[in-house]
């Protein structure tokens, strides 16, 4: 939880949210503060600082626990525990840039069919 609290200090938007929750509890709907950790609908709010978001993605996608699951499954895993603004966009981008996923996952497109030879030109 210390890394989560540290991520709040390095992100000015989250630091402002934290001060609002301390000074006026209940001013932001869906947000709560307990033991120095911001929660959004009972999920841990992660600030932008100290690459904690990327570490969470790596733990839930790149590790054997995540198993390089697809975009939607990774998003659902992260969404069940954590929250940050534009989380879905970040996760979809990270999964689309995952090197292992690019090499292993198959593409769901039709086969181009048999090769057709080009006609032989009549003039040079």
From TrEMBL:
One Pfam family per UniProt: Integrase_H2C2
Stored Gene3D superfamilies: 1.10.340.70
InterPro entries named among the record's database cross-references: Integrase_H2C2 (IPR041588), Retrovirus_Pol_polyprotein (IPR050951)
Domain of life: Eukaryota
Domain Integrase zinc-binding: 51-106
PANTHER family, per the entry: PROTEIN CBG26694, PROTEIN NYNRIN-LIKE
Protein name per its UniProtKB record: Integrase zinc-binding domain-containing protein
Source organism (scientific name): Capsicum annuum (Capsicum pepper)
């Amino acid at each position: 939880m210390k890394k989560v609290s540290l991520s709040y200090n390095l992100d000015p938007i989250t630091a402002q949210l934290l001060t609002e929750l301390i000074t006026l509890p209940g001013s932001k709907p869906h947000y709560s503060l307990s033991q120095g950790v911001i929660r959004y609908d009972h999920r841990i709010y992660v600030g932008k600082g100290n690459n904690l978001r990327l570490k969470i993605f790596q733990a839930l996608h790149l590790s054997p626990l995540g198993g390089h699951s697809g975009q939607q499954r990774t998003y659902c895993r992260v969404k069940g525990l954590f929250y940050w603004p534009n989380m879905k966009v970040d996760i979809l981008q990270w999964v689309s840039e995952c090197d292992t996923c690019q090499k292993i996952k198959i593409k769901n497109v039709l086969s181009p069919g048999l090769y057709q030879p080009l006609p032989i030109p009549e003039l040079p």
